[in-house]
Amino acid sequence: MPATITGGYVRNMWLRLIRSHMSALERIREPPVSQLGPEPEPDKRMLRRGLLAVRSGLTAGDVRKTAEKLALRALELPELAHASTVAAYVSVGSEPGTRALLDALLARGVRVLLPVLMADNDLDWGAYAGEESLVRVQHGGKMALLEPAGDRLGPEAVRDADVVLLPGLAVDARGMRLGRGGGSYDRVLARLERAGADPALVVLLYDTEVVERVPAEAHDRPVHAVVTPSGVRRFR
């Protein structure tokens, strides 16, 4: 039976996966900041596996339909309505789709920056100029990414963004985001903080990926909003 995003199959699969991880999550509920460190990482790995397992059951049709809804919801954000520069990313595989949103922003005249993954997992940036400006890049044993083919603008270019759209696997009631674990966006957020930049931080997810609690470490930073196919939730 093919999985659908809103159907009972995926919802039940999600519930089983989350319940299987709840005992691990309970152990780290509301830890003092001084105790945050490498300890939550095993719990992050378990939660990532569960979330990725659910995503792997989605069809191309599921992803396409939710991408259109995500674009409509995201474009309602005042932050995006008034943005002149947005740092975004090109979704791949079963990630919540971003292509419709990227094209809508470009049509509005917004300058859209897309990441270029470097060898050390840091991110350079390039400008998006439509589908023809993207190239498929295979990064070693990692997934292939669609990246801008034009000039590299440097890692500091993200400081110009009014809004940063972040990839993720989940976000919790505090706005804490669970990423894939590569650390690329931890570096981006640290770079913004050092520069005193304060763009709106927005994560795009499926409805089931907004959860009660994800493990957090001292370097983790909350996002300001999450956009899902059914709506927007703000954390500031």
From TrEMBL:
Keywords: ATP-binding, Magnesium, Metal-binding, Nucleotide-binding. Its cofactor is Mg(2+). Pfam families: 5-FTHF_cyc-lig. It catalyses: (6S)-5-formyl-5,6,7,8-tetrahydrofolate + ATP = (6R)-5,10-methenyltetrahydrofolate + ADP + phosphate. Its EC number is 6.3.3.2. The keyword Metal-binding applies. It comes from the Bacteria. NCBIfam families: MTHFS_bact. Belongs to the 5-formyltetrahydrofolate cyclo-ligase family. This is 5-formyltetrahydrofolate cyclo-ligase. It comes from Streptomyces siamensis.
